[in-house]
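Page 37, top half.
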Amino acid sequence: MIISRISPHFTLFPLLPHLLSRCFCQVVAGVNRSSYSTLGSVFRDFTTSSPKCGDASNNASVVTYSQLKTMLSTHDIQLFDVRNLDEYQAGHIPNAVNIPLGSLEESLKLSPEDFQQKFEVRAPEKDDDNLVFHCQSGKRSAKALDIARQLGFSRARHYKGGYSEWVEREGK
């Protein structure tokens, strides 16, 4: 049996399952980022880069305070606050729509009509590049970004500074 031949290696190399899992994650992330003509090109790209699975901290995924201000001033943003309702009601970034993290996946799966009816804004589309999530400090918005990416919103981003940075920079 193959498992009985592999299991002694797991005791010798306790990190092997983690490494295999990470490798698989990196390959999947690479495939999701680009369209490859062959599997070989996936592995070539994989060996020259090391994205972390579920890592929403790369620069392409992050919106800075100044970028957020520009997007808000030009009305070129779909800003979703993934904090809880009580946090949102206590204060929020102008034009942000509250979708608590716990209901984000379900909400992003709604039909455009149902989304519009529930949130009174246009539903985001999979290829929108102005879709931004934020929370209090960046942790929940990073999770929101991971959820959105898993659902196919490949160009979504998050405001890593969150409402905390917004309040600090806005002087409120």
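Page 37, bottom half:
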Amino acid sequence: MSERRTRRQAALAAAAAANDTPTKSNNDEVAMNGNGGSNTNGNVQAVAPLDHKVDDSPRENIFVFWPNIIGYSRIVLAIASLYYMPLHPRTCSILYSISCLLDALDGYAARHFQQSTKFGAVLDMVTDRCTTSCLLVFLSSAFPRWAIIFQGLISIDFASHYMHMYATLTMGGSDTSHKSVDKSRSWLLNLYYTNKTVLFICCALNEIFFIALYLLSFSSPLLSPQLLQPLGETKATAIQTGAQVNSSVLRQLFTNPYSAAALEMARANKMDSTFPWILAGISAPIMALKQFLNILQMVKASRWLAEGDVAARRKAGLPKKKSA
């Protein structure tokens, strides 16, 4: 017992001596004056560890970056266009078009201010999908016979972009952009995502086609036979009588889209359908190309995910051979 205690006491004493003994570097580090001589007061100044790094960079708030502020503006304009969509085609078209045009501006702002973020990319994509789908939902109600086509377009748009984004994150890594498409997978998708001119033309004319259909629902009896139907005595009386004037500033800025005047504008066929027909004819081929790209994107993403599944199963040794 005494021998064990002696060994333990010796070990503890050695450890204590090692902790109390100053290192050679601390003993030799003496504050030097401007001429290179040692400080005469004999005080030793402590030196900060070399691995200690002070983060002097300012903290950034991603949510107030200029591209994201533009994205918020797009959402506000889109909501305003939806408010006027039922019976104010001109106002709705202007607000919706400005919201779509800002889609190109936020990308330029991200590059100019060096503020490209993952949040901004997702915000941009979600805004695009939601605004287009809302317009297609209205077209489904405006053209009931073709509702299944618009429903299919919404489904393809959401499915292709979701599968493409998911495949990029899982197979390419979290730092890989969804616009980084290798030519070996699809040269057409590579051209679509890497060439800014091609991307802008496809997206812009795709939206222009749907806006043209929206305007035709108010102006073309060929597509909307209900425009030729009479208003009826009740609605005509309401238009002739008029509604009580609301002089509030809020009501003047945000007029009621279901007012008698709006109903008369929508049903009396006062819009000229020539310009919407021209827009629809010019943009129709690009719209068809955009839908083909959506299908191609969904197919390529599915194959990429399948390749990953095959590699994962091979690495796990699946399928495992059943023992006899």
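Margin note: DSSP finds twelve helices and no strands in the chain.
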